[in-house]
Amino acid sequence: MKYAHIVGWGSYLPTRVLTNDEIARTVDTSDEWIYSRTGIRERRIAGSRETTATLAFEAAARALAVADMHPSQVELIIVATSTPEYIFPSTACRVQDYLGASRAGAFDLSAACSGFVYALSMAAQALATESVRNAVVIGAETMSRVLDWNDRGTCILFGDGAGAVVLKGSSIPGGVLASTLRSDGSGGELLSLPAVYHNPIPVLGPEYLYPNGHKKNTIAMDGRQIFRFATHVLADVVEDALGKAGLTIDDVALIVPHQANSRIIEASAKKLKVSSDLFYMNVDRAGNTSAASIPIALCDAVQEGRLKPDDNVVFVGFGGGLTWAASVVKWDVTPPHVPLLDREWKRARYIAARGRSKLRRIGRRVSSRLLGSPTPDAPLREAPRK
Ligand code: UT7
């Protein structure tokens, strides 16, 4: 039995800042309304050459540099995302390729804004059973690509970004102590994002056009209901996970919640009978980055010195599905000291490794041209007659 310790962390936000005032130029809203109702001042928007996978890669490269681990040592990559570029190949496979993590298994996990906590819990279990020795867990989103920018109820909320942690198995007790995962599919339509496979089949007639009724691939949300749901479940799931870890709220140094709305946090703090200062918030500058919000907030909290060795920290997420989840983590393994210059040099090397992936692609194309069909002389089989 091993314990899954967080030994590296990293985040990446695109450089383009989109302020509330800028949004107010295109929809009927204002900075005053957005800030007072959500706590959001600005969010980041991915550039035209950026994708969920490139943001995820940047965050993972930073996290591996902190952990002082080479990508070839990585055994598992999980990307929690609702905005993959492709259903397959998964975003995790693209990150694996970009990193040159040649010995890693890789898959995406879909649990909306709870995705990072779900993925952390899955990775911790894989480490506990020793099926892998380490894992990179990433939350990454390009929410700007799935928003209806005419819908003021949603377009003001979300932003783009990625955050990652590196987990390492150790026989020293600690790390991810306990998790609680929950879901309620009956509330699915309260927050939804249609997939892309609503391809009409004209030859089969009108009933085969858009079978599930969706007309566009953008987020639809019943904000009030989601607000109620979030304030209802957040405190309960934190207490449940703490109970499993044998702890109480008094043992907690910091709660890093999904960054959706500062009012949800204030209501949940009241329910838990703690000060809202116990919750780390960066929603003002990053907006709601869905599955990426918790690891991005964690990195900011570490940067601001809000966590010290032996602190108990709780991650708590909630969102579409409906899903909600909490993990209790002992922040206890100090990562190896890697001087800043060395860390940046390592990160640059990981980024250079992306070149390898391009070369491999070219190599595949060339060999396919040169070698032709793998079974050129195989006789064609006749299709069986009906
Ligand atoms: O990560 C996934 C989880 N998502 C969430 O956690 C989101 C949860 N929900 C929320 O954060 C809030 O419900 C919102 C921020 C989305 C909305 O805030 P609210 O306080 O619940 O507003 P509301 O929907 O009750 O609307 C109040 C009023 C309405 O006008 P009337 O009917 O009172 O005249 C809305 O039309 O505010 C209006 N409104 C706006 N006004 C200016 C709604 N959106 C806007 C807007 N700017 N952007």
Please give a handful of descriptors for the protein shown.
386 residues, alpha/beta, Peroxisomal Thiolase, Chain A, domain 1, 5-stranded mixed sheet, 11 helices, 13 strands, 34% helix, binds oxa(dethia)-CoA
What does this entry look like structurally?
The chain has 386 residues and is of the alpha/beta class. Helices cover 34% and strands 22% of the residues. It has one domain: Thiolase/Chalcone synthase (Peroxisomal Thiolase, Chain A, domain 1), CATH 3.40.47.10. The protein has eleven helices and 13 strands. The strands form four sheets. It has a five-stranded mixed beta sheet, sandwiched between helices. The protein starts with a strand and ends in a 15-residue tail after the last helix. The mean pLDDT is 91. Bound molecules: oxa(dethia)-CoA (UT7).
Could you give a quick summary of the protein structure above?
The protein is 34% helix and 22% strand. It is an alpha/beta fold.
Present as ligands are: oxa(dethia)-CoA
Radius of gyration: 22 Å
Which percent bin holds the helix content? 25-40%
Give the CA-based shape. globular
Outline the low-pLDDT stretches.
none
Instruction: Say what the CATH topology is.
Output: Peroxisomal Thiolase, Chain A, domain 1
Query: How confident overall, as mean pLDDT?
Result: 91
Number of domains: 1
Major β-sheet profile: 5 strands, mixed
**Strands side by side in the biggest sheet:** 1-7-6-4-5
What structural class should be given to the helix and strand makeup? alpha/beta
- How far the N terminus sits from the C terminus, by CA atoms, comes to 56 Å
Put simply, the count of helices is 11
Q: Any guess at the CATH architecture? A: 3-Layer(aba) Sandwich
